[in-house]
Task: structure prediction
Amino acid sequence: MNNDDRSSDDMIADLYQSSKRASVADKCEPSSAVDNAILGMAKEASLTRNTGEETANVVNIESTVKSALSSTKRKPNSRWAIPNSFVACLIISVTVGLIYRENADYIGLGDSTVNEYEIPYPTTMTSSLSNADNKDSEDKRMEADADEALGVMQETIVSEEVVAPMMSIQAVQAKKSKAKPIAKAKLMARPMLAPRELKRARKQEGRAIGNVQSYDTFDDESEFVESLAPSVSSDQVLHKEVSDEQQAIAQIRFDRIRHLVSGGDIEGARAAVKALLIEYPALTLPSDLAFLR
Amino acid sequence: MDAQQPDEALMLLYGAGDTGAFEMLYHRHKGGLYRYMQRNIGSILDADELFQEVWAKVINAASGYQVSAKFTTWLYTIAHNCIIDSIRKHQHAPTALTVHAEGEESEINELASERNTDNPLINASVGQQVDRMLHFLKALPMDQREVFLLKHEAGFSVAEIAGIIGVGEETAKTRLRYGMKKLRTAMVNDEKGEA
Result:
């Protein structure tokens, strides 16, 4: 850039500054309306800013409270409104049904017909009523059942004690005599007896003992055993059982006496034989114990 | 209120609620800003509208104003952005410079011929020269005209102009140089034609 250019630029700059001064002189500036508008806008903004600061805290508090309320108060979800109400109705109906069913008997609204497939539903009210009504009869029934069970157990024990040696005696005698298969068959076919029938048989046993023949009148033991069998046709099996029992008891006593004899206690053996004969006068002593009579 | 307070202090006072500070600030800068916008756009109606828009932005930003630069730099940056937005909105076609841009050689020859003669700008009256200069200013490309106005109307340095229009300093300097050259050439040619 030479000096002429620099002078020209300075000249242009001077001209522009002259234009600025001319524009001021010619009022080449924004109009008063524009000035008023801008200054009014500035004042209004200032006032709004000041009042806004004062109200800002109130607005903040209100917004905070609103946000807190909106967070706590949930908007109802319309999608789950119908399912929730349906579930609520279902629960209420089931509850009412159960209460009605529970109290149906108590309030007299229940069906008189008995449902065979009904599951027992324990309730305090019905159980207390039924307990009060049936307590006495149930106690009596339970006592009777206990007595009966006890009696069966006792009879079973007695019959087992008696029958086992008796069967062994019958086996030995059958081998000895090889006779009277009919009597043996009767013994083997002995039916089980009820406890009451067993009691009755015991009573008849005492009566039958008097009719039993003496042991000496028989040729061997098989005939004696057969004679112990009841001759009455109606109680044939029962009498046979009584004689078997008596023989079994006698056999046990004989074994004890033999044990005393083998031990050398002859006096004790004689006393036992004497007591046995007193207890069973019709009883016949075996040949090896006959000397003790 | 002290009339010698800097612009930044007045702006801070207005941000604190002092409307008198804003009035002082407004009267201090309204003429230059209005001329800058009017001569940059060329239309008085658009200049009024943009002028109000610029000051409205200043008012709205007063509460959060922080002194990070000169107030005038900030003010003319807002004005520049408003002008750019307005041009984009209304598709203002920048007026083509009627002076044909010659090549470097012809320009040198022209300058040589100017050197051999007396400067015609000196011979014309001041009023006429101002009118011609403003006429040729309108014919400058917008980027050069804007740099010229920021330089001679608002008095910014090249660095400040570069910051306001968002270009590099060299670019701003080049634009200013080309603008001055075109103005000078146009005025010389016009003076020769009249002569």
User: Anything to note?
Assistant: Chain A touches chain B at residues 2, 4-5, 7-9, 11-13, 15-20, 22-24, 28-31, 34-35, 37-39, 41-43, 45-46, 49-50 (CB under 8 Å). The two ends of chain A are 179 Å apart (CA to CA). Chain A has a mean pLDDT of 66. Residues 3-71 of chain A form one domain.
